[in-house]
Amino acid sequence: MELLITSRKKLVRQKIVDAVRDVIGRALEAYHAPAKIREFEYVDQGTNETVYLSTGARYSVLHVGDKRFFFDRLTGRFDGTCTSLQVGVADGLELCD
pTM value? Predict the structure, then answer.
């Protein structure tokens, strides 16, 4: 029974930590506070590929081609990757709003 209580405590703690990080991140975004790295855009003249960085309330996102690399805005730690939705669409179907 103690294992269940310990995991519940950890779950509650993690939810509180996430909520606090979200509030701090939104406040930083509202006041346009700088992230660990600033937004930029670079176009490689050889390949014509664009690399740029965008920032949000919780993450700084590095865009390289169709890949996105997410970094925690408060700590700067790498958090994960994803690809754009258009890459996963079969046969080049158009996306509609």
Answer: 0.55
Rounded to the nearest 5°, which phi and psi values hold at 89? -80, 130
Rounded-to-integer distance, Cα 37 and Cα 73, Å: 9
**CA distances (Å), 40 to each of 37, 44, 55, 58, in order?**
9, 13, 10, 18
What tens digit of pLDDT does each residue of 45-95 get? 998 899 999 988 888 899 998 899 998 887 778 889 988 665 444 445 555
- 38 CB-side CA count, 13 A: 5
Exposed e or buried b per residue across 57-86, where buried means at least 16 C-beta atoms within 10 angstroms of its C-beta: ebbbbbeeeeebbbbbbeeeeeeeeeeeee
Query: Do residues 76 and 36 touch, judged by C-beta distance below 8 A?
Result: yes
Q: How many CA atoms within 13 Å lie on the side-chain side of 41?
A: 5
DSSP, res 93: P
Phi, psi of 84 (to 5 degrees): -70, 155
